[in-house]
Fold these 2 entries.
Entry 1:
Amino acid sequence: MSCSRRDFLKNTVAGAAAAAMPACSVILRTPDEAKAMTEGSKVRWAFLVDTEKCVGCGLCVDACKTENEIPYEAPVSRTWVERYVVTRDGKTRVDSPNAGRDGFITGEIRGEEIDPEDIDKAFFVPKLCNQCDNPPCVQVCPVGATYQTEDGVVLVDREWCIGCGYCVMACPYGVRFFHPVHKTAEKCNFCYHRITDGKEAACVQACPFEARRMGNLRDPEDPVTKVITNERVQVLKDEYGTKPHVFYLGLDEKVR
Amino acid sequence: MSSDLVVHGAEWTVKELFVYPNEFIYWSIQIVMYPYMTGLVAGAFVLSSLYHVFGQKDLKEIAQFSLVFSLALLPVAALPLLLHLQQPMRAMEPLLTPHFTSAIAAFGIVFSTYGLIVLSEIWFVYRGYFVAQVHALRDQPGLGNRIRRLVYRGLTLGAYDVSEDAIAVDHKAAKILAGVGIPVACFLHGYAGFIFGSVKANALWMSPLMPVIFIMSAVVSGIALCMLTYIVIMEWQAFRNRRRGGGTQASEIRGAEADVIAKSTRYLLGFLVAAISLEILDLIFRGYTAMKSWDILRSVMFKTDFIKIFVLQYTLGNLVPFILLILPGRTIKRTVVALLLVLFGVFMMRWNVVIGGQAFSLSFDGFMHYHIPIVPHSVETFKEGLFGALTVISMPFILFWIINKFVPSLDRDIETG
Amino acid sequence: MKTHVLRPLWVAIALVALILIARMFVVPDDFGVHGDSFTYNYYRLSNVQEWKDFPAKYTSEKRCRRCHDENAGLLQESKHARLRCQNCHGPGAGHPKEIETLPINATREHCLRCHHRLAYPSSQRGDLPGIDGAKHKKNKECRKCHDPHHPDLEDM
């Protein structure tokens, strides 16, 4: 690491100050600077899932694993699809075999065949990281290895993560896991490399039914933003105060 | 799945009903060991402070021992955390880039502060002894003695003044440090409770009572372990003395020991009652308010984990030793049994919090069962298995044995502060 | 010798100094608060670029059509118009330079993702043409009879 003497001194002071009272580093900015920073970001990514359209083909999970180099056979995944079958007796059966990677090609749920006559309603719900505005996973990282970018996506620094698992515990949605190869915390990042390069996220592109879409909340003309602002959308587990940014159309109250 | 491609947690987690794909028991036995060992440290220190700060003279012996023992326990409290990291080589990062909104980030700082307080207190208590050793070993022949003398010279930090005034200053400093140490010890453990209590995603953990419960049970387990170790060592010394034919001395030890034990038992019972009351309060409150999570919590507590919580923890680990200790005509043997049960009870409490908190899915619709790896077949199954836990448990005794070679905490002939 | 009381303190200060010095050498220069919140924006700035540089595997459909206009056109006219090339042909990155032919997923299971009949009310899955995967022409690849680029039952 090259480090001039001036930088060295500067870092010493900054480092000592940061170590002494890190919370104050927020206040050190002038109001104008802070304003410029929040308003400077012209992008706030958001996701829209239309559960009415999802047929549970699992092509999104399949594409995600390939695109993001998550070992194909590992039982973990950045995104997954859940199947809900609500029967007349009031029971709700939920499953997500292989995270939905291979789709749902049998009527069986955990070895139980359900008579179609008994089904009141049944549907599929794709899940992924909610890129919360108040991400509890980021709050609890002891080393600053996970963070929120200015466009609202939560990323994990694989070079800095110590693998304590606190973020995995803190996420109410269970989206985090340890990458089997890198041995660091892993999660969906909306295909950050794709969306910042003008491409669609892998799952969005792979979905033949347009059940998954993504847009920019700061752009009022964005079709996805229009849906989110003009239609009745729902988020998952808002009681945790996380302010999730994956919005759902047609979400059932049975969805966990 | 190839052997080098292991999903952390998959080897010891069995899922039942609907559990999110990425959910596993990520925090296993080492995270049970972590609050347990931290609790022992905090408890041992509080016991020693009862003498140093509050002047409980009859606790002098056990206080001296428990102070040194808490030093031996100290590095072991950090060991489970190190062992459970997926990237242990980066263990220093919480000190380098501490993210203070995380309870774990405080660990390095609180832990180091506490370690320095314990070390300083021991230094003040034993400085006179170190100086005496430096003088005593001056003309002793042999390499061993020369090394010992060198170690002692280092331990004095160059302060050789053993005048009455200087020793009086030592006493005062030790007392102040012991006083400062109590809140820091409680903070060290209270925040271990905070680590769990503040996880809003976990229905079982999230409770503002968690830190307080952790402190209370920490003190219980710390006192119990100190008492137990103290009894075992004293009995061993008495046994050796008897074999050497020093019958009178043996009975003398026994008398002094009984006093210390009686007094410590009273404190133990007090903290035990406080700990149980808080835990029961927490349980009743959850049942009474019956939030969304109560259904799944109830089925974990009263069905899958019933034996672990109500039989092993509350009955065998709390109620039985309580009765054993409170009934009149207590003997040393009965005390030992009660202490072992108390230690077991606190361990079960940690288990039921850490593993129990992960026994149900975030979907509130499924369960996860933890099967602790017994025979290790990889580094991970060693670290997060039975032998990893045994390594952690045995470490404080090994460390104590080494430290005690230089800082004799059990020798009562030594004049200390 | 009056101040021997402070000796442990000097040791403590030396340790803190040691950590602060280590911090300067080990912590990357761009580590800090990059945003308006210490809670959410405390990180190593260059990691954002590292993620942006992550290699993409799936290419655009336009790119496929540049060479395979015939098949793409056929597909677009068919009932399978909603499908994307890479749903079955796999990720296109590196094709054709490094990977000459893409591995096609033509398994029965791949078709059954949508066409195993699940008569689920309130889900569009029930509206898709479907068969019972366990009974219909067992163990046979679907494309032996159905052309995935033009899956019309009337033309069979």
Entry 2:
Amino acid sequence: MSKFLTASIGRKFVMSLSGLFLMVFIAVHLGLNLLLIFDDSGSLFNEGAHFMATNPLIKIMEPILGLGFMIHIIWSFFLEYQNWKARPVKYAKKNMSGASSWASRNMLILGALVLVFLVIHIIDFFWVIKFSPEEIEHLAKGDYDLVAGLFKESIFACILYIIGGVLLGLHLSHGFWSSFQTLGVNNKFWLKRWQVIGQIYAVVVAVGFSIIPLYFMLGLYK
Amino acid sequence: MSILDSKIPEGPLAEKWNKHKAAIKVVSPANKRKLEIIVVGTGLGGASAAASLAELGYKVKAFCYQDSPRRAHSIAAQGGINAAKNYQNDNDSVFRLFYDTIKGGDYRAREANVYRLAEVSPNIIDQCVAQGVPFGREYGGLLDNRSFGGVLVSRTFYARGQTGQQLLIGAYQALNRQIAKGNVEMYSRHEMLDVVKIDGKARGIIARDLVTGEIKRYGAHAVVVATGGYGNVFFLSTNAMGSNGSAAWQCYKKGAFMSNPCFVQIHPTCIPVHGDQQSKLTLMSESLRNDGRVWVPKKKEDAVKLQKGELHPNDIADEDRDFYLERRYPSYGNLVPRDVASRAAKERCDAGFGVNSEGKAVFLDFKYAIERLGKSVIEARYGNLFQMYEKITDVDPYKAPMMIYPAIHYSMGGTWVDYNLMTSVPGLYSIGEANFSDHGANRLGASALMQGLADGYFILPYTIGDYLADEIMTPKVDVSAPEFAEAEKEVTARIEKLYNIKGTKSVDYFHKKLGHVMWDYVGMSRNAEGLKKAIEMIKEIREEFWKDVRIPGELDNLNPELEKAGRVADFFDIGELMARDALDRNESCGGHFREESATEEGEAKRNDEKFTYVSCWEYKGEGAEPALHKEDLVFENVKLTQRSYK
Amino acid sequence: MADKILKELKIKVWRQKNAKSKGKFETYIINDISTGSSFLEMMDILNNDLIEKGIDPIAFDHDCREGICGTCSLYINGRPHGPDTEVTTCQLHMRKFKDGETIIIEPWRARAFPVIKDLVVDRTAFDKILQAGGFVSVNTGGVPDANAIPVSRDDAEEAMDAAACIGCGACVAACKNSSAMLFVSAKVSHLANLPQGKVEAKSRALNMVSKMDELGFGGCTNTRACEVECPKSISIMNIARLNREYLKSRLSR
């Protein structure tokens, strides 16, 4: 195993698996969040949030998810450093636009920005829900009010969350098919398919996550 | 017989090789480990020999001037490799391949060598397949064949248009395996500058590390030279920029005879020269002539307009086109052999019918094939070639005819070797294009790859044992011997002399000048007067070179100009010897056309009575006239006939 | 069709005396270049000018000049083998450039490809990777008849697609990580597609990858720049195959 993890392909394998795992989480997360805009009373979302907070399976998955994030993030910096070292003298002029997508070349930057967003996001919601539920109770609010309240009050927060969604989408636009490529689950027929599925997934994530703050920002709620 | 002993075994043709193998000596495995062999060059011949010898247990040192053995110019061969497999059930056989090769070579090659080549050819295909060479296959999974260059059977194996590349990679892989095992020490970016003889036997080489400029000595019990041909003497050729005749020339100066140097092959389908700044010619596969029709305008005024760019070739009506190959050679048409097609193109261009701005090009038109077969068929057959042509010339061959012109391509001549592939210096071997042995005066298409691999895989590994069996008591060669010191001193002195000329003109200036002389007087058609003139002109250019060449850079650093200078200095000498040889051979045969020896219609006329011999030139010292020896060719199994493609 | 003349070009080129010295860019002006000239002919002309002026000519690798030996390199205006697709530098022609343009020429940049002089880099790392397992372990002689093992035409074609690699190193030069995965995968795929090569497929993948890592190439992040810049259009599907072969062999031992 140690040989596997010191080999370049083994290391990539870890990125790919943790990425795929996080993509499953994102899909679940998005599904739950969309409840925010389908019931303005907030009870549907509160119920969902309650289910997620109390379901034993989800409880088990929570630390694993945390670990998944940690591995994906820390590993990426480590790998990027390795890759950066492979070219000690940089080119004076690069013209890579025709050869590769911007997202594919800037996965670390995209990932790091998503990470910044993630930290803000955790402080905004997860931290409050998880570790200071008394604050919510004190404010006599449910989870819905916490989220909706932020978006209703702050256009800045809405814009931040839209940007966050788009960044994540861009990250996934490369990350999705790339995971399958790294696992070797690809060939000349599947390449196109993975890419199309990946693009659809990326768009759904970006649009899906952006639509929620947009909904509140534009005052579409009753 | 004079001092030349070709060591051709007695007995019937078909039994010679087997009898010889049974008769020659074999070295025991324990002794092989103690014997060292130097192989210079890592093309098909060199790489396959180095790998096979190392597999047998010899300690091998391999050298190449390129940065990796994989880059040797064998890689550029496109069409395919011949082998008498008879997989197509078209009555091919070892004898038929032998006969085609002898006849194609215009009866100027040794029967025994050529027969052996044909005999081992099937083994080559087996070997390459086992190595993972991805030959073209039929739907049933078996190997496919193509026909090639005017023979009556399909015996050419191919890997798309990159057969040379794939075969070389196969040999390179085998070589890599031996390098990894420690049986071969690989010296890339090293150039052999001299061969060292001790007590009359080849015992090592002097080589320059091209990166550090260091001159180093390497000892061995035998030296194998597999350094290819000397076509770059013409400056413009299809050879790689670095291809050179220097290693072979050093052997010549140390007593190895040079044979038939005037036999060079001119390939008819190259992309024409543009301007005077060009440094290399690009070959278009000969297979194009299967479907393309060669023509020039009938009217001179059309040609003049084409040359000025005032007329588009598509605007010339069919009746105003002169399909000169079909006109002159109705039975073979566009598929006449390389030498015939080349001379015919030159004849038309010399008469003023050339079609590019230089007046040195003819059309190769696919219009008719596209009309007959459809664009998609042509695309499937030649798509890659058409794309390459368009990248280079910016002309789309689907819409306008290609332009082609002949160019120097291959040297049939080379170092004289006996049946064991040993030169006239004991312990010094020459294989592949570097030797003279198998192609006579003209090489058939798809036979160069066959010869390189035959020599390297299946002939040399046996025959070298016959010599080395007597060397088992010879200890490891001591490179501090005075002979090594002397050779190193000479090499260093020559380099310093070149470097210190500090003249005014670049190496290329002289090389181009030499190339012009060679092309004009020792090119596609030759005559006594021109050849004599060429010898004088080469002498003048050489003199000017040694007075006025400028080599910038440093001696102890990577210095491509210095490398070129050394090679060009040898090209002067090679060029002069080629002219001498061409002057001696007052007959037309294969690639060698003497205007004095032609039929009334201007076709080549061989003179078997006087010239059925291999010319073998012996070096007699700087500035002295070389001595000519003759190895008579004896034909017991084929009848000599005049080639006709009418 | 008709060639034009580029009246003036500025050539900004990397000059470095040897492996140890520090290099820098120099700019040279060159006049009257035909658009029909190849890029390397332009370099020849420039070098001739430099020699006449007493300046050390620019060292660059080149040999066959017909796009097959893989010797030529050069990172031209930000792209390996310059602004054209499916060509090597020696096949690149000057019609791809405009009059008055500044052309920036750099050597391949990678830790595993140290500069030897000017634009010449040392690519022996590629040889070493292949020495680690890029072969079929058969000796000369004693092999079965070539037609003894049928190979499906599709497999043979796929093997040939991968075997077309010329080992020029453009994939490494193009990759933002200086990864050699396309090169390694081409050889692994070439041999794994053929029955003759399958026998050693497992150890081959492991050994070649570990040699590649040892030599200081970066990892693959699937940007696909390599396949776009590859003069022989080697597909990244070979990389998927290498990943697969590698995982298979790792998991089975």
